């Protein structure tokens, strides 16, 4: 099949006025090839929406898999973030962390579910993020297991506060988590500090397994970059959505 077919899809640009964030948040909504508003679709919510679409090329991956490999058609919602506010909204110690999670549940989900034919059963929702985006995605699922039970983490920043949050749980057998981490992520420089994300993910994996999480844990050669994560999205999408 010609590559041009992979670009025959619709990506709507939306804006949501958030009272909780006191801000306007931009969204990107991918509608699969053959989209029919009378049908219904599973949905993936992605933190760092602009990066997931532009650098991760998630819409292109999904389209190819739908057309060629029987992936279930899916709606993908990318939630943009202002880089100046990213850490404060995505990091557990961030001053906007709690209100961002509230925005996600109280404003974003109703906005999408009222406007698009996404399935609203917990088994049909997936939440995804890279680095701190993986962190906030896991925290949202832990706080709202009736809404999110499937999580995609691309090199999640699962540091002390996240590990402590997981340890509050007794049984996580309801949680299905795909964790990807690169073997060259042992020294990752960020605006906050330098972290060993590889070791942090290994420690978090053990905490999760003790709580019976349904865990797909993948370590492979890679750095803390979209060049690594993008190449893994095919396998991740197939893990959750292959018929």
TrEMBL record:
This is Esterase family protein. It holds the Pfam family Esterase. InterPro entries: AB_hydrolase_fold (IPR029058), Esterase-like (IPR000801), Mycobacterial_A85_antigen (IPR050583). SUPFAM superfamilies: alpha/beta-Hydrolases.
